Amino acid sequence: MNKGYLIAHVTVSDSAAYAEYAQAAGEAMSAFAPKIIAWSGQYENLEGEAHERHVIFEFDSYDEARRFYQSPAYQLAKSIRAGAATGTFVLVEGAGF
User: Fold this and answer.
1) SS3 assignment for 7-34
2) What CA–CA distance (Å, rounded) separates 74 from 48?
3) Which residues does 86 contact at the CB level (< 8 Å), separation at least 6?
4) CB neighbours of 64 closer than 8 A, spacing ≥ 6?
5) What is the distance in angstroms between the CA of the first residue and the CA of the last residue of the chain?
6) How far apart are alpha carbons 33 and 16 in whole angstroms?
7) For 27-40, how does the pLDDT look when each residue is reduced to its tens digit (9 = 90+)?
8) What are 44-84's pLDDT values in tens digits?
9) Contacts of 40 (CB under 8 A, 6+ apart)
10) 3-class DSSP state for residue 81?
């Protein structure tokens, strides 16, 4: 089974509210235990809309990544993020080779 990836590109507009989101999102992740592949750090925006933060989480499967994103715990965290940040969140199935 191929891995699943949640990729987030985020720009924060309210640091205090975003910190609350990060805490809630971390708690939601504890049940899924994804591997962190990338977490901000150095980046170069080559094309498209630029964001200041970039995160890639690896899950056991695409379906597991989707279950995390759709979980009640993460949806609660997402509601905290509303108004604190803008961004793009994408689920991607990993290559099978």
Assistant:
1) EEEEEECCHHHHHHHHHHHHHHHCCCCC
2) 27
3) 10, 11, 13, 51
4) 4, 32
5) 11
6) 25
7) 999 999 999 999 98
8) 999 998 999 999 999 999 999 999 999 999 999 999 999 89
9) 52, 53, 54, 55
10) helix
